Inverse folding.
């Protein structure tokens, strides 16, 4: 009897349709990438998993849909495995079309002779409901080759059964599961490889699929040698010309995940009773579980943050990311207990200081499996530490002030007192000489006025050093600066000064208005007083925000300048003057520094003789 030959093109087309159905009905993502990571093909499951239609993804790089921290972590290993031709399963977080995160377990295989990656990805969470799929388009022979490659390289055990239950095709993973060669599996009835204890369940799933219903179950596979393996089993009907012609069965070994799940359940049973917040992360640092105390403390539920890294939800502008990276590195490399302090941001924006204890959980081979973090709130302790530091700074400043006042008393007060005593002695000797007595009295008046001036200055400074009692208010720094410039307009016009203002839009302070007014007034009048006679005065005032600080004010002029090499330590001292062509007492800059420090800020100076001076005020945040 003459054998009928099926033309190769028709056979390829038949194969294309068959494997395309396998791909489109699978709950997994089936993808093909070129060597640069550009997507060449993806099945319609992407609509349910990622929210994108296939045409929205084809032609784009996989990196476009990774969360940023993932890109560098995945790109180089892909390239390394491409050279080595290895298959590997990894877990990564991708961005859905709606902006939410979805974590996928991805298995990749580089096929060097085709120059492409074959990848299968599954949601690392409960099964995702698949969206209704569009009608099957006709496929080319090239597409058939591609779908067959997906079948062959699928990381799960894949079996193609005909309508009677005989195995038509099996991939390498299927042979590995059964521990048999392909020739020993193909053309055998699937019941030949099912343990009698599971026979009824598997037959029911097969007949359900033959009737047109896909089925999925997580169960225990018992081999004919009585070996037990946790598996995820998916059975999918094969449609052809509106008829069911067979069944696809996908079997995934989930023993490791189930073992980890059971360990986590045991751990959570204990940890749930602990009052401290507890966070469990997997080996890649992604959140697996939190206890009720964590939710109460942070405001985050497990379903909101599962699969994310703690840095994606618990950090803010003042969190030291380098400290977090050090913690992660220590626990990964040393695999021992790590203790660290960490500034945490809650869901409502509030902050708290935590003492963290990170305990690594290792598998039987000594590899990191997960990390258990126990947190203790130390906010009150940190506040006490900061208060002690503040009091220490105050004591140091007061001690420095006492030394300075001692110097003032011994010099500035001693001079007028000694002058008065000498004049009194002269008065006793020359009391019979009216003209001389009048001269002595005039000198006594001058010495007493000088003494009174020094005492008034000291009293003013001591008043500033005392606790602030004036109410703080919100101050628009630009408006206040304009008011002060208007008050000295005559002096500015007289010196033909050019004034430039460059204030950031939100130049606001919550502070003591009288202090801020005095600081601005002293810095502006100083620039006018010590302008250079050789050029027009240019006065520039600008504000900006520091990265991790408060508002800064910069006052710059092109005046006489100060020799900082000689006078660096004297700029803000009381009664220190550097130019004597105009009246002054050397009190203004000392008052500015005193007031700024009383407000919790600081001031710095940069100056060059003959070029000008810049004062920078760092206000407390």
């Amino acid at each position: 009897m003459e054998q009928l030959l099926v033309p190769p093109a028709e056979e390829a087309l038949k194969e294309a349709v068959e494997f395309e159905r396998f791909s489109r009905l699978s709950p997994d993502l089936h993808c093909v990438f070129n060597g640069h990571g550009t997507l060449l093909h993806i099945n319609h499951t992407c609509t349910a998993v990622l929210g994108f239609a296939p045409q929205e993804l084809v032609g784009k790089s996989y990196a476009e849909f990774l969360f940023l921290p993932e890109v560098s972590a995945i790109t180089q290993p892909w390239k390394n495995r491409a050279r080595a031709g290895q298959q590997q399963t990894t877990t990564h977080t991708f961005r859905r079309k709606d902006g939410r995160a979805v974590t996928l377990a991805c298995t990749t295989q580089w096929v060097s002779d085709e120059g492409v990656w074959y990848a299968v990805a599954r949601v690392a969470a409960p099964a995702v409901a698949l969206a209704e799929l569009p009608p099957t388009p006709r496929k080319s022979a090239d597409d058939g080759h591609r779908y067959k490659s997906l079948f062959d390289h699928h990381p799960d055990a894949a079996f193609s059964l005909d309508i009677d239950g005989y195995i038509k095709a099996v991939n390498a993973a299927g042979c590995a599961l059964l521990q048999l060669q392909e020739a020993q599996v193909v053309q055998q009835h699937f019941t030949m490889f099912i343990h009698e204890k599971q026979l009824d369940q598997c037959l029911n799933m097969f007949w359900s699929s033959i009737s047109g219903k896909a089925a999925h179950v997580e169960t225990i596979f018992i081999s004919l040698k009585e070996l037990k393996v946790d598996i995820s089993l998916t059975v999918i009907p094969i449609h052809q010309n509106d008829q069911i012609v067979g069944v696809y069965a996908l079997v995934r070994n989930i023993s490791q995940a189930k073992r980890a799940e059971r360990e986590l359940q045991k751990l959570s049973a204990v940890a749930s009773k602990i009052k401290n917040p507890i966070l469990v992360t997997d080996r890649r640092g992604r959140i697996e579980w939190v206890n009720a105390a964590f939710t109460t403390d942070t405001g985050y539920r497990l379903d909101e943050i599962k699969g994310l890294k703690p840095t994606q939800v618990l950090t803010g502008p003042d969190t030291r990311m380098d400290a977090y990276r050090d913690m992660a590195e220590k626990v990964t490399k040393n695999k021992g207990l790590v203790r660290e302090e960490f500034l945490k941001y809650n869901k409502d924006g509030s902050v708290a200081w935590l003492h963290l204890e990170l305990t690594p959980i290792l598998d039987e081979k000594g590899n990191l499996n997960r990390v258990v973090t126990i947190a203790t709130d130390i906010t009150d302790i940190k506040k006490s530490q900061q208060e002690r530091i503040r009091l220490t700074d105050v004591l140091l400043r007061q001690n420095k002030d006492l030394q300075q006042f001692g110097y003032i008393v011994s010099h500035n007060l001693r001079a007028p007192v000694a002058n008065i005593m000498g004049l009194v002695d002269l008065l006793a000797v020359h009391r019979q000489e009216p003209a001389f007595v009048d001269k002595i009295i005039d000198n006594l008046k001058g010495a007493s006025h000088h003494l009174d001036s020094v005492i008034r200055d000291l009293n003013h400074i001591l008043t500033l050093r005392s606790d602030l009692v004036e109410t703080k208010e919100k101050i628009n720094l630009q408006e206040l600066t304009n008011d002060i410039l208007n008050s000295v307009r005559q002096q500015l016009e007289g010196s033909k000064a050019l004034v430039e203002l460059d204030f950031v839009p939100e130049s606001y302070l919550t502070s003591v208005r009288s202090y801020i007014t005095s600081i601005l007034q002293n810095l502006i009048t100083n620039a006018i007083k010590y302008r250079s006679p050789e050029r027009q005065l240019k006065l520039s005032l600008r504000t900006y925000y520091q990265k991790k600080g408060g508002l800064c004010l910069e006052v710059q002029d092109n005046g006489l300048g100060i020799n900082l090499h000689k006078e660096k330590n004297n700029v803000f001292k009381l009664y220190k003057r550097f130019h004597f062509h105009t009246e002054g007492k050397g009190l203004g800059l000392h008052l500015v520094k005193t007031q700024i420090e009383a407000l919790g800020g600081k001031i710095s100076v940069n100056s060059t003789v003959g070029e000008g001076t810049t004062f920078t005020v760092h206000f407390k945040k």
